[in-house]
Design goal:
The structure holds 3 protein chains of 3 kinds. Chain B contains 1 helix and 11 strands. Chain B is an alpha+beta fold. Chain B is globular, with a radius of gyration of 20 Å. Chain C has helices at about 5, 10-40, 50-85, 90-115, 140-170, 175-205, 215-225, 230-245, 245-250, 255-270, 285-300, 300-320, 340-360, 365-370, 375-405, 410-435, 460-490, 520-545, and strands at about 135, 555. Chain C has a single domain (about 5-445, about 455-545, about 555), classed as Cytochrome c oxidase-like, subunit I domain (Cytochrome C Oxidase, Chain A, Up-down Bundle). Classes of the chains: A mainly alpha, B alpha+beta, C mainly alpha. Chains in contact: A-B, A-C, B-C. Chains A and C meet through helix 2 of A and helix 3, helix 6, helix 12 and helix 13 of C.
Chain lengths: ~70, ~170, ~550
């Protein structure tokens, strides 16, 4: 069996999708119904943290750490 | 190509973040005088004696009608000369230009707790200018590994009030 | 049926690579433990402070260069074999690169450990960056050169399989596991040009005494030609795991095949022409080149930020298939009780934090705030030391059963292990970052000075010291747990036809949506070379125009 990820079929030998076979999976979410709101939320939180910490590091920690190389 | 619209949005935001970082760096560089060192000069590390590094120390110079100071420092295994045996003494609120090179191996020249931080590389002269804003002492740390006693390599900069600056220690 | 039953020959090669990798991990990790106690002055009785630098060299070389390279080789053998459905083309050739790399490793390790023998002339306390004029024994440089040549041969092996496969499948798209392998290796070929020029062209003749003088800036610059891309050589295999395997471990599917390929292409293009960002504090390199390197480096944030989105979206897909709901509540539905998933996920969280300190490192002038301070190892213990190393350890829990045909033993210990690593690294790394802000240098046996005290902005020096020592100890315990689980499972795990669920589902947005141009390796490789020439041709020419070995410095013993 070659790499399943490279094959265009969605199912394996038994004809069932992988989701149908895994006991932990309660429903199959197709690409059309999947809206990654959680991911968007997490990445926006990350964006905010990084931008704020950057401003703090650059303008307070770094710029306030004189003497600096001025030339 | 199928890119989810959330991901498209995130990619745009990523470009905004990158542009913001570049803009801050340029702003700091141009408007806040937060520079990095560049290319100054090469030097023969085996013949420093014939250069100003042969007589390292603090020199007084006049530039644009202003009194400024030049500090020539040799970093050697495992000391700053000057800096270790005697502190580098400079006046406060005055332009000071450091020239640093090494006759042996790579060293670092980091004034601890400040943004003065440069490599000392044999064959290259590191040059930077600064102004010390307050009267106090600073430690100098060698922050590049330079051999088995690297950890003992330290020095000191003594920033004094202009009125107390002792010119008898200057070198010619 | 699992991997070993289908591809017994490839399984043997992958296992051999893993054995060397884990031995290097054990020795290098032990050195790390000694350093954590020595630097903090908690215990200095193992070795003296001069020997510290021998240990530090061993820690860097064995973990950053040897553990990674061998693990990556094993991982890629697994992925190429599986995704192209073929054993290695010629086993004699395959084993020859493995043994070449192993012999090189032994030579370099002997040269380093020689430094612990009193009055030994075989020494290599030059750290893993080996900047001249500090000189190591020729064994060290020759050994490292053999490792790199072996890695080139390994890459050629995978391209060989790919060409054979392409001959039989002219119209298929490159399977994603092979795509990621081949693009990582293309990047490796570009960046190791610098290392080969440095080590073979300069350092080996110099260490053998054929030339006496060396210009220190030139090999340093060539090292960093290689030295930033090498971090992506470590990182891309972790991305490979996060893209190809982690979605499935989360209970979902990879979000997008196209974005995965685009990310690897950007890394191929931009990993190498950014090396000057390790030299912002260097004299002899103009500000213009430094700025160019900064712009390229910050552009490299893009593929990692895309990865953040794609990988998290794949995990969220898994969580929702497992019944997850809400904006953030779904996170609780992820399998936080499975070691392979937990390790990869925690490694990803750590990488997000390490990404931030990397942004600071990359940004030219603010770099001077932390250049060569302990902030920098604080940063790369999050990236290579966790994002990469913890991912490799975690995926071992999933790969090892496929390679040995045995079930994992001690699952509870295996589950504790990544959490312990996360805890230990949180303690150690946050303290290292903060100490770096106070100016505490990296690469030193005794960061205590006679003439002055460091003045931390956040916290106290004592508290940081203990966080580093305790964090390092917890990391060591975690490492022992990992090795224990691996050895026990390998030797005594229950034999099984299907010791682990090794199925990898296809992506949500599959390869049928991926433009064919993304698979054009010639195009992207050529473009990568052009970008490197743009970044490096002129400054390197400037350095060698006055003579390759001039201005020359004399060698110094390490």
């Amino acid at each position: 069996m070659p790499d399943e990820a490279s094959k265009s079929t969605n199912s394996n030998e038994s004809g069932k999708s992988w989701e149908e076979q895994d006991p932990d999976i309660v429903r199959e979410v197709t690409i059309d119904e999947y809206k990654p709101y959680g991911t968007l939320t997490l990445t926006l939180i990350y964006f905010a943290i990084v931008a704020l910490m950057w401003v703090f590091m650059y303008f307070v920690e770094f710029a306030g750490n004189a003497p600096s190389i001025i030339e | 190509m199928h890119i989810h619209k959330f991901e498209q949005f995130w990619i745009k935001l990523s470009f905004v973040l990158i542009a913001f970082f570049v803009a801050t760096v340029v702003y700091g560089f141009v408007a806040m005088d937060l520079k990095v060192i560049g290319d100054h000069a090469t030097i023969d590390p085996q013949n420093l004696a014939d250069t100003k590094f042969g007589n390292p120390g603090v020199r007084e110079v006049t530039r644009n009608g202003q009194t400024e100071y030049e500090v020539y420092v040799q970093t050697i295994q495992f000391a700053f000369n000057p800096g270790t045996a005697q502190p580098i003494e400079v006046p406060v609120d005055t332009r000071v230009t450091f020239y640093i090179t090494s006759p042996d191996v790579l060293h670092g020249f980091d004034v601890a707790g400040t943004n003065l931080n440069t490599m000392a590389i044999p064959g290259q002269v590191a040059k930077f200018t600064t102004i010390f804003p307050e009267v106090r002492e600073y430690g100098i740390v060698c922050n590049e590994y330079c051999g088995p006693a690297h950890h003992v390599m330290e020095g000191k900069i003594k920033v004094v009030p202009k009125s107390e600056f002792d010119k008898s220690n200057l070198v010619e | 049926m699992t991997f070993i039953h289908k591809y017994p020959k490839a399984a043997k090669v992958a296992k051999a690579n893993f054995i060397v990798a884990f031995i290097a991990l054990a020795i290098g990790g032990f050195f790390g433990f000694v350093q954590a106690l020595h630097r903090t002055n908690v215990f200095r009785g193992f070795f003296n402070s001069g020997e510290y630098y021998t240990l530090l060299t061993g820690h860097g070389v064995l973990l950053a260069l040897i553990f990674t390279t061998f693990f990556i080789a094993g991982l890629f053998v697994w992925g190429v074999t599986r995704s192209l459905d073929r054993e290695p083309e010629n086993l004699a050739y395959t084993w020859s690169w493995f043994w070449l790399m192993t012999i090189g490793t032994i030579m370099a390790t002997v040269a380093i450990l020689g430094g612990l023998v009193p009055d030994s002339s075989i020494r290599a306390a030059v750290l893993y960056t080996f900047y001249p004029p500090l000189q190591a024994h020729p064994l060290f440089y020759i050994g490292l050169a053999l490792v790199v040549v072996g890695s080139w041969m390994a890459g050629a092996d995978w391209f060989w399989s790919y060409r054979k496969w392409r001959g039989e499948n002219p119209n298929e798209r490159i399977p994603i596991l092979s795509f990621m392998t081949l693009f990582t290796m293309l990047m490796w070929y570009v960046c190791t040009i610098g290392l080969a020029l440095e080590v073979v062209g300069l350092l080996i003749p110099w260490s053998l005494g054929l030339v006496t003088e060396i210009e220190p800036l030139l090999p340093r610059t060539l090292f960093w030609f290689f030295g930033h891309a090498v971090v992506y050589f470590w990182l891309l295999p972790a991305y490979y795991v996060w893209y190809a395997i982690l979605p499935k471990l989360s209970g979902g599917r990879l979000f997008s095949d196209s974005m995965t390929r685009i990310v690897f292409i950007i890394f191929l293009l931009l990993s190498t022409p950014v090396g000057y960002h390790h030299q912002y504090a260097d004299p002899g390199i103009s500000v213009g080149f430094k700025f160019y390197a900064m712009a390229s480096t910050l552009l490299l944030l893009l593929p990692s930020l895309i990865t953040l989105f794609t990988v998290v979206a794949s995990m969220e897909h898994g969580a929702r298939q497992r019944g997850g709901k809400g904006y953030l509540k779904w996170i609780g539905k992820l399998p936080w009780d499975r070691p392979a998933f937990v390790g990869c996920a925690l490694a990803g969280i750590m990488f997000a934090a390490g990404g931030f300190s990397g942004m600071i490192n990359a940004s030219m002038n603010i770099n001077l705030l932390i250049h060569n301070t302990i902030w920098v190892p604080g940063h790369f213990h999050l990236t290579v030391g966790t994002a990469v190393a913890l991912t490799f350890m975690a995926i071992t829990y999933w790969l090892l059963p496929q390679l040995t045909g045995r079930k994992l033993k001690h699952k509870t210990l295996a589950l504790i292990q990544p959490y312990a690593w996360f805890l230990g690294m949180t303690l150690m790394s946050n303290a290292m970052h903060r100490a770096g802000l106070a100016g505490v240098p990296r690469r030193t046996a005794e960061p205590e000075y006679m003439g002055f005290e460091f003045e931390p902005i956040f916290g106290t020096m004592t508290e940081m010291k203990w966080q580093i020592a305790i964090g390092g100890t917890i990391l060591t315990i975690s490492l022992i747990l990992f090795l224990w689980v691996v050895v026990a499972s390998w030797l005594a795990g229950e034999k099984s036809d299907k010791p682990v669920d090794d199925h990898i589902p296809e992506p949500l947005s599959g390869v049928e949506h991926t433009p064919a141009i993304l698979d054009n390796m010639k195009l992207w490789f050529t473009l990568a070379l052009v970008l490197v020439i743009l970044a490096y041709a002129f400054p390197l020419w400037e350095m060698v125009a006055d003579g390759i070995f001039s201005p020359g410095a004399l060698p110094r013993p390490s």
